[in-house]
Amino acid sequence: MSSFYSKKDLFFQLFEHLEVENLNRYPYFKDHHQENFEMVLDAAEQIAQKSLYPLLTEMDRKEPILENGKIKIHPRMKAIIRQFGKDGWINATFPYEEGGQQLPWSIHLAAGYILQAANYSASVFPFLTTGAANLIRTFGNDELIKRFTPSMYSGEWQGTMALTEPDAGSSLSDITTTAYPTSTKGEYRIKGQKIYISCGDHDACENVIHLMLARIEGAPAGTKGISLFVVPKIIPETSLPNDVLTEGLYHKMGYKGAPIAHLMIGSNEGALGYLVGEENHGLRYMFQMMNEARIGVGMNAVAIAQAAFQASLAYAKERPQGRKLTEKDLSKPQVPIIQHADVKRMLLLQKCVTEGSLALLLYCSKLMDESTHESEEINKKQKHALLELLTPIAKSYPSEMGLQSTSAAVQILGGAGYTQDFPVEQYYREARIHPIHEGTTGIHGLDLLGRKIFLNDGLGWKMLHQHIEDDLSTYQGPEDIRNQFEKGWNLAQNAAASLLQKAQEGPEIFLADATLFLELCGIISVGWMWIRQASLSSMNMKKENADTAFYYGKIETARYFMEYEIPKISALSQRLHSTSYPTLDMRDYWF
Amino acid sequence: MSSFYSKKDLFFQLFEHLEVENLNRYPYFKDHHQENFEMVLDAAEQIAQKSLYPLLTEMDRKEPILENGKIKIHPRMKAIIRQFGKDGWINATFPYEEGGQQLPWSIHLAAGYILQAANYSASVFPFLTTGAANLIRTFGNDELIKRFTPSMYSGEWQGTMALTEPDAGSSLSDITTTAYPTSTKGEYRIKGQKIYISCGDHDACENVIHLMLARIEGAPAGTKGISLFVVPKIIPETSLPNDVLTEGLYHKMGYKGAPIAHLMIGSNEGALGYLVGEENHGLRYMFQMMNEARIGVGMNAVAIAQAAFQASLAYAKERPQGRKLTEKDLSKPQVPIIQHADVKRMLLLQKCVTEGSLALLLYCSKLMDESTHESEEINKKQKHALLELLTPIAKSYPSEMGLQSTSAAVQILGGAGYTQDFPVEQYYREARIHPIHEGTTGIHGLDLLGRKIFLNDGLGWKMLHQHIEDDLSTYQGPEDIRNQFEKGWNLAQNAAASLLQKAQEGPEIFLADATLFLELCGIISVGWMWIRQASLSSMNMKKENADTAFYYGKIETARYFMEYEIPKISALSQRLHSTSYPTLDMRDYWF
Fold it and tell me: What is the DSSP letter of B374?
């Protein structure tokens, strides 16, 4: 088997670290238990290994093409998407009465992680359909649900999120696509353009259902005038094409197997669109699904980095090159490069980034499940606040550090890593999208520092603080690991306090280094995950028949994180305390 | 004009910062003056603009192909390489009597920088021929020089460096390609394999001249048994093919226009090879050319990052998106993204990395010229020692930070940056080679800390120390910039001292974090260049008719460097002081 992820680590995170099997304390999950969760994950591994991984490089080399206004993708994707539908992946988390399995998001996202690690491009298709269908079923009326969701669940129809426009990328408030009411209530004619629409058109599905943001004619400016519509490529009842034209296909650096389309909406009579929920609430609906989408993107990022880690680890164990620094006898054979300290450093970097990120993302996934199903209001509120706070961090840390992590994988392979003879160069290209889509890192910095920190009187930040302190007080691992973390944690708290004082000086100064604050919170949050893992590993390694090598590896990786990553907080906090603002003072014409 | 580099900055570095026009104090350069240096640079810009830049994307999209054992490259490269020859680029630095122009390396490398920024793939061809010819003319006998160099200088023949083998990449001592003496003195039959040979075969030149490392049969093991040979693809006198077969063509992540070949040497009767210089001195010869090659690679890296910087700067000035944080009126038009602090941060990062690296590389280039032509022994020795010390730094800092810099360029363009509609995604892919070739970053870390620091009783390090202190004592710029730098400089010196103490504990511990020490020295060296630039800009902006915007930009970028990059020294020095060694303690089977 080609190893593209560590099953051992995934199971450790789910069942030892986060104990997601206990989610069955909530009525919604009452039929579930660890055994069937494992079956779900094993099933994901089966598809990943048999169908997705074998297509990884082929889907990169043979890109989709746009021919006569239609996008053609890899011919095997049709069967794969259909299988996702048939096996129930697309609506797995939804209620039984909707044909779902009431699966926790924690398990659904963990299964997704396996698929993404095997072949990110292929994993995009069902992931988007789930998101689009979830918007319809949550905010749409019964008619919309009946018309559109069943064929999306079956994998016959593709779902998309159609937000971005040529003049409205990060600034969604500037959307100009316009919906004109028709004589039928809830039905509109839409005109505009949408760009960068993932899976916006392709020939593996019979229809494409766009969840599209647009302004109803005369709606107020800005985010308060944006509505959400279902805009199908083909009108289901008549099988006639809707007025949605595929204007272009983007050629990307990576994940080439998933087509990204440029769509012209309503170039002729106007595309038929069906209002979801109420007028002018579109962006709010979108944002209520954002946590899931953003945790999802973080998961994509860590999955790719994990696949690169596994590839470079396998190479480092096999590739002989050079000798120990203390070995002067050149007649001795070369040693596998994993024995060189600098190669181990690059492997430890990847291990601490990928396993630490995965821990954080699954922690967030569990918060999604808990905050949804918690019955006590105070618990629900606290968990939701922590999830809101952690979401930009859990999206951005794996995305940004995933670049460095996949870069380390390339570096371990050396010249070979730069060639298409090994998959790491593809991972390096695919990883680069994640700091961009689903909100750029800069946008998430503003979201965290400008919004999430203050939400609910700062409840999210208080919860983070409390959980970290709790975990430090019950910590059972080596002292040096805790001490190093606490140094960073104290610096981080001081930096945050000093930054909050700057809020009085207006948003320009306060938010100038929001991206750096996001980076700092990423290091702290993932460091916290390593505190938890080091503590747990120290305890569990004493159990009978414990896999001590695994736990020693966890503890040494936690130590690596504290020795090599936590010190970066000194640098960041130095910057965050500073009252010199070159990024504000620099004039455009000085560049 | 498409702007792929800043002429203004290049001229500032050469003629204000480094005053390379004064190199004409050395007899070798006596005929040169600023005016003709500028003509050389203008000529480079002409070729870059007219011939190279227009082919940038096309050479990426239409890769070379291997057909019937022959590599075919872009058809226009033939005329371009010939023009390089005709215009005298290939042997420009060599003496008049060899047909050269006695041009300083400083100017030659600066001209190369322009070509590389325009089209890195195309720039590789003449760069390699110069290096190969330089080995022949420096260490070869007259016969070899006469047989091979004239057609290399004219661009009719390609030169290569044939070092790497399947089992000898970073570990050159493990080369096994073997040379068997023939009855003719200096002539050998060679058998072996060479991989990753840049421009190792192509159809734009009539012959390919490999400067190849091999062991003469019976030579001692290790680096002491390696000899250097000229191995032509075609024997010049007979026009018969030599026994060198092109076995494969690598498909790479980037700089696809330059073919990288896998060569089978002597599969039949053995390839004819001609010994350069003395037996078993091959690696020493190679290494004497290494400074030039490594400064050259640093220059490649900064050229690509500079092109990406210029592309993202142009985009940021034009692309409207979002509004000032203080602007709540959504009916106001969107502003160019250069007005957002986080975008300016990403532009300043690129500006400080690229201009700081260029300064350091040209500083090293000037040291190359000075240390070669200095007549006083002590000056020569000091300059050479500083050059030796700075070389791994000047190769690695631009290579590593070039990744972050081009990544920031992609990020500024957002989704557009990830597509092939803009060149930044290509720059991102091309930049990734530089931390690998001409010695990986890890290898340079070992070179710096394990070797260069101690060379000549630490003369290089002493010179660095002295120059930095001198520049601080004559510094004329804003105080805050000096203060921030001095904090970092003090921490760096303490870290170095503490590290040197560890040398007693054996090479494993001493060198465990050599890569981090290299990173620290990179930040200090480039910070030093910013101290020099800030000081000079503060003085020169007071001159009559000074371009004050340019100098303000320099000073603010220096401030950015001190505020955002210098603090990283805290993190690195914390690590270098530590006595915990997870990269040594981690066991292979714990991963």
Answer: -
